[in-house]
Design a protein that fits this description.
827 residues; mainly alpha; Clc chloride channel; CBS-domain; 3-stranded mixed β-sheet; 29 helices; 15 strands; 53% helix; CBS_dom_sf
Amino acid sequence: MERFPLKSSVTKTGMTYQSVYKKGANTANGRGAHSGEDEMVDITPGLQQAADGVTTPTSHGTFQIYEQGSRNSASSTHWDTIMFSGMQGDDDIPGIGQYEDFHTIDWQRDIARDRMRHRYIVKKRQDSIWDLIKGAHDAWSGWVCVLLVGVATGIVAGVIDIGASWMTDLKFGICPAAFWFNREQCCWSDTNTTFDSGNCSQWLTWPQVFGDRGDGAGAYIISYLFYILWALIFAALSASLVRMFAPYACGSGIPEIKTILSGFIIRGYLGKWTLIIKVVGLILSVSSGLSLGKEGPMVHIASCLGNILSYLFPKYGRNEAKKREILSAAAAAGVSVAFGAPIGGVLFSLEEVSYYFPLKTLWRSFFCALIAAFILRSINPFGNEHSVLFFVEYNKPWIFFELIPFVGLGIIGGCIATIFIKANIYWCRYRKYSKLGQYPVTEVLVVTLITAILAYPNPYTRMNTSELIYLLFNQCGISNSDPLCDYNRNFTDANSAIEKAAAGAGVYRAIWLLVLALVFKLVVTIFTFGIKVPCGLFIPSLALGAIAGRIVGIGVEQMAYTYPKIWLFSGECSTGDDCITPGLYAMVGAAAVLGGVTRMTVSLVVIMFELTGGVRYIVPLMAAAMASKWVGDALGRQGIYDAHIALNGYPFLDSKDEFQHTSLAADVMQPKRNETLSVITQDSMTVDDVETLLKETEHNGYPVVVSKESQYLVGFVLRRDLNLAIANARRTIEGITGQSVVIFAGNVAPPPGPPPYLQLSRILDMAPITVTDQTPMETVVDMFRKLGLRQTLVTHNGRLLGVITKKDVLRHVKHMDNEDPSSVMFN
């Protein structure tokens, strides 16, 4: 995103208003009119020219207008000194520059404050060796921060993978020799059998633990009961931890991360308790066998680590806009470790979650994702050479004709995704507004119980979802014993090409089981996504698509076996070798459903080929992802994350949406015509007057005007800053009473006699962004998106008319789209 794409238009409006103020109002204060040619615009901490030529700091660093004539070469050093001290002076009043919970940040102010801080450090570097070291530390702190985030994310991901793998196998049995081993690790030392059977002598299933060595009804019932019991224990623990310690740890977290990265403050959402409970709860909920994944929550976990580690570097910890650069890099690292896809992670952060993504953040995200993937690879949680669970080995070229079924899979994926999104949002809305929402732990236990009871009889739903995806992606070879590979083949040489063959009875039985698994997983995931445990959506979406894709793939494969000579197969299927790979169809189907659910395109294709190693299959993946997105967009406007943002009412102004209405700023501003606007005058209100205004109104900020009669604009002051400044003055300045006059302008003569006046020019934003009442709302909405505004002031001929806040813009957009404007949540 461009940093100041609308700079020229914004500046012009500001100058028009400022010129009116100077030419009209300031004449009364003893200042003559100045010509517009002597004014220049700069991004500096605000400086206000007093009548006697002394400069005084006034703002936190915003667009500021000052007189060119006052800056001759002789006084530039003095000017800079005052300018930098003004920047540092923000800290004199504790809390200034911070934000309340559930408020939007002011991107312009924060970025300008950081730019001023940087100029100050660069200037000081020449003073001493210590200042030079501090300057160097400031320069590399961003890279050090993302390095730490990458290392921490990789370690946490390794812990989650190992913990979830062990606890998932605990539902089926135990390793008596070393109970902390999962089934695969337990069987490593056993040489009697292949691991595919899963029944090596070292690993005991629960019936074997209780002395039942057979495969009869008794053993089946014991296994069934233990499967359900462990699932309920894990789910109950996860839901209870979330409810007691960190309610923010539930769900995937991606809708909230998108909202936070757009500039919204949700205190505690990225805190240490949320991190701890999310990690533990995620291991438990994945192990319980619920239809959910750990990939989405990994983005939340990585963002928590980014937030916590950013406080080690005040440059990022104290500046909300700069902190979001670290959070964008952390989100990339989260996807990197979830899928073993560092490039896909960077593209996911850019395409799906980030709001402000300058080139510098792209490089840091790349570095962070790289470090995280390297650390996870070093930990090697899966005990093989791959950092993901479902890596594919085949490399057979695809036939041009196959693009037709691939696009067909994209259409199927888009339809499945639309059904899922609409049903899930309907259920989540019902949960939110009914009594069901008051019993989160009970709901989790009921969903877990139903899932476990229905999942166990079907081997494809009983197994871990990641193992199911691996099985569906895999190519049938000599070592595969699954019914999916029950073809009428005779393998004479393990290294020879796999020949075409008719599907046996096992394949047809497996297809019926897969159809049942598809329906079951779709229904169960609708009810699971949104319950109060950490739960992601990537793995269930991939599983749904992989099942559909494998079924289609077997169909095309059998068609090629039956009619090898028809022109569709270009003669490539007449050699006797197997020319159709059903596993590839599973891969394409998985991408199609995930693309339809999340509306990802570029990042999805890159994640899929990094995930599977199938670089040769980029074109089929692209075709399916594009078809899926088109179908999804035609049947429903929003992806699952945007739909959940809208459901929860988060103030998210999507930069991808277009505003197509013809309303004007005057139609949206508050207050409406014939209503009074709450303002503060620059030099005629007492402390009592200001405190009364703060008590009687709930606005986040107030325009400061010359007088209530003239309504000429002086600046804008935030409610939080006003409260802090008055409280600080009462504590530190002797004699301040309720009758003390509050002065916001540095060029106003102080009132004579006691009590002493209160000078608050430093907390005044002297150059708030303004528009006229006839500005099209399309332009206003663009300004809010691209400049990250909290509010803009509306003027007419230089006189203040009203204010437009981000909340007003969101409500107006909802109203124009015939949606409920009151659904927007704000503080």
